[in-house]
Amino acid sequence: VSPRISAEWEPSRWLTASLAYGQGFRSPQARQLGEGERAPFSKVDSYELGLVAKPLRTITLTGALYQTNLSYDLAFDAGEGRLERIGPTTRRGFSLRSEFRPAPWMYMATSATYVHATLDEPPIATPEQPSPPYRKGELLPFVPPLVMRADFNVNGKLGRAWGKPVTFRAGYGFSFLSNRPLPFGESTPSVFFVDTEVAVRRDFLELSASALNLFDAQYAAAEYSYVSNWNTRATPSYLPMRHIAAGPPRQFLFTATCFL
Fold this sequence. Notes:
Helix content: under 10%
Structural class: mainly beta
Strand content: over 45%
Number of helices: 0
Largest sheet: 11 strands, antiparallel
Number of strands: 13
Low-confidence stretches: none
Mean pLDDT: 89
Shape: globular
Radius of gyration: 24 Å
């Protein structure tokens, strides 16, 4: 049983407020279960307060405050190569989004999401892990507290060629991820990159050029901190080390598309 309830209020034609609560669950991975163990489902309680404002036909503003409580959460254990239970967690934050259409040929959108995700209780110590890398009140690993995104694009007509109209579209988008916490008190650097695209179309044929990671930002697509030792000494080191998988460098893509 997963009860859900929501209510909306419209104090004016351009403003809508909403309040919602829902309960759900998340099933565990099969690899987490031992021989004959019952599958423990993680219960999720979610609360949200939202506002949608449309002061003008060309502007839409959306905002929400939220809280999510999980009876137990998961975190990726790089040493084991799988998700492991780390205890109950709480996520609190807000989400903001704006959309602008100042003209039929122009579109702009921005969004930002902030989350304060913390561990309510530490994981239980085990013989395999007598000193868990997480403590009560610590930020959840791998979850960036702030994520931002902005998009801008335009489109229009360039003229005619061989009796057919020629149109174009162009745009860019940038993404920002704040420092992500890691186990053992480590954190990752923030990430910022820009993507662009330009396209020209005549009749059924479109030619486009895209640049991904335009400024060739060097960042880690995945980053972990765990005990790793390649030394051949009799007594290995048990200090956690930083490991990364590099994000893709600047890429240029050229595409020809036929519309049937």
